[in-house]
Amino acid sequence: MTDEEKIGLVILASGMSRRFGQKDKLLAPFRGEALAVQSANLGVELQCSARICILKSNSPELQKVFSSRNIDIIINERPDDGQGHSLSLGMKEIADRGCHSAYLVLADMPLVKPSHLRMLHTQIGDHEVAIAYDGKRRSPPALFRQSMFRKLIDQAGDTGAKEMLRASRVVKYVTMPPLVLTDVDTPEDLKRIDTYGKT
User: How many domains are there within the chain?
Assistant: First the structure.
């Protein structure tokens, strides 16, 4: 088993999409496929020992996107509790599967590629966390060592993990382009990033 295969992958996809409109933004078309396909493909391209997606209930189309790529689905029955609750669910599952570290990805960040996650892995060194940084803000994707799992499981809400990382001295910032770190909240966001990285 390679070092990469000992790493888990957690994809958070149970947000409420309130700013996007009536349709679930993860099903919005992006480069000919549903937006969620971009993050789901990470599970195909990375040789991780566990691949987890956190979804809200009643999302059969999204379940198909992820399960067809051998990504295990964990249903978040309380999506209104915020991203922290989703993260807690994912990290508990990863911990139970014996991973020594875990990538964290948001399903509404379609420009994140395997190369960006491998940058985190390469640069984490002796730190407990490696997180993307665009020169102004920290953002997923991130890579967490096993020593951080319990803290992530125990935090809650939308600010729990952010406050923990802000107080931590064990975080490595890995520089990535700002557009790569765009999380799609509105249809305008989707249009703005559509041409990025096209060849």
Answer: 1
